[in-house]
């Protein structure tokens, strides 16, 4: 009887110990889980305001900006959140650099042509007529390398997230253009002196028109032609107010994704490193890929709306021969700013030659 009673006692003791052990483990696990959840809840979230100058329906928005914003939130475990405002809701396309550098908002995409008549003039060298290779990937690499060599001289107050070549600039027109003689007398939108010089060489009359006024200017006949990329022609619906689009790739522009320098440097060092090593290159890759793919997509969309033609090759060669003033105007502008215009142009061409050979 005593032996049997002792066996029951030991069994009861073991059961009590096991139950207590389970309870303690559960409590410990709960405390750990609670601590982890509290840590995530208490971590600082850095919010950035992105002024997207494109519409919410554009391919840049759908295929570049929004996927990248999701990637940022995922890769940073929610520590960085980017709020995107579409259609230039936070500021106009022509003042992006000033706005971002002055902290009006945190992020945006800036078009190089908007800073040609400023202290940032040198980064517009790749916008000169007939200087591009017309290979978007190569031209993006060339401009990126050129910018990296001069980044301490330009775009003060911002961190550059990526540099890409935009879609090739072709020609919208209200009238048929089949020879170089047909350009004469047409009025065309132009901005900087180097761009106006192109059209003076072609016998056209340049007119300065703000980006947000170009549709109306075409519709009212204030301008009868405009150089623009296929994507812009579609997204801005210019095909509604002109009849012709000519594949005449005579220039391009470059797109700089930028973030306010102080805001970026307010991030912890590990996040800055993540952006520079992984997230900025990812943005650039998305943008280059989107631009290449959309060249053909937008062309087909234009063909559904207006008369699309390839400008005759022999006439294009004649245009190249008479397009001489733009380069001189760009060099003169650079020299007036204390830069070596000819040297910068030669440097760009050397980089282009090296990268194209690779």
UniProtKB/TrEMBL annotation:
One of its GO terms (biological process) is transmembrane transport. Keywords: Signal. Pfam families: DctP. Residues 1-26 form the signal peptide. PROSITE patterns: PROKAR_LIPOPROTEIN (PS51257). Gene3D superfamilies: Bacterial extracellular solute-binding protein, family 7. It comes from the Bacteria. This is Lactate-binding periplasmic protein.
């Amino acid at each position: 009887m005593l032996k049997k009673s002792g066996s029951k006692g030991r069994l009861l003791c073991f059961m009590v110990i096991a139950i207590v052990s389970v309870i303690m483990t559960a409590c410990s696990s709960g405390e750990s889980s609670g601590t982890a959840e509290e840590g995530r809840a208490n971590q600082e979230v850095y919010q950035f305001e992105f002024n997207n100058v494109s519409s919410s329906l554009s391919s840049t928005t759908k295929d570049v900006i929004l996927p990248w914003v999701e990637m940022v939130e995922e890769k940073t475990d929610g520590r960085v959140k980017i709020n995107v405002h579409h259609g230039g809701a936070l500021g106009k396309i022509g003042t992006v650099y000033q706005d971002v550098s002055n902290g009006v908002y945190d992020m945006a995409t800036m078009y190089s042509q908007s800073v040609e008549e400023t202290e940032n003039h040198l980064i517009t060298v790749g916008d000169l007529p007939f200087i591009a290779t017309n290979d978007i990937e190569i031209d993006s690499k060339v401009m990126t390398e050129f910018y990296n060599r001069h980044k301490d001289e330009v775009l003060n107050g911002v961190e550059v997230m990526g540099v890409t070549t935009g879609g090739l600039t072709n020609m919208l027109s209200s009238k048929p253009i089949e020879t170089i003689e047909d350009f004469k007398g047409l009025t065309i939108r132009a901005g900087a002196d180097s761009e106006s010089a192109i059209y003076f060489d072609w016998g056209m009359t340049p007119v300065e028109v703000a980006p947000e006024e170009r549709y109306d200017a075409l519709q009212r006949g204030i301008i009868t032609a405009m150089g623009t990329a296929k994507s812009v022609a579609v997204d801005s619906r210019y095909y509604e107010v002109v009849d012709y689009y000519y594949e005449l790739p005579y220039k391009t522009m470059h797109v700089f994704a930028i973030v306010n320098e102080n805001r970026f440097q307010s991030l912890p060092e590990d996040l800055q490193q993540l952006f520079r090593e992984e997230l900025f290159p990812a943005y650039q890759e998305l943008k280059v890929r989107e631009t290449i793919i959309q060249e053909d997509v937008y062309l087909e969309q234009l063909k559904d709306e207006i008369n699309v033609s390839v400008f005759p090759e022999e006439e294009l060669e004649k245009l190249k021969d008479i397009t001489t003033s733009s380069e001189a105007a760009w060099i003169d502008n650079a020299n007036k700013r204390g830069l070596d215009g000819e040297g910068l142009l030669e440097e760009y061409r050397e980089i282009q030659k090296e990268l194209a050979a690779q």
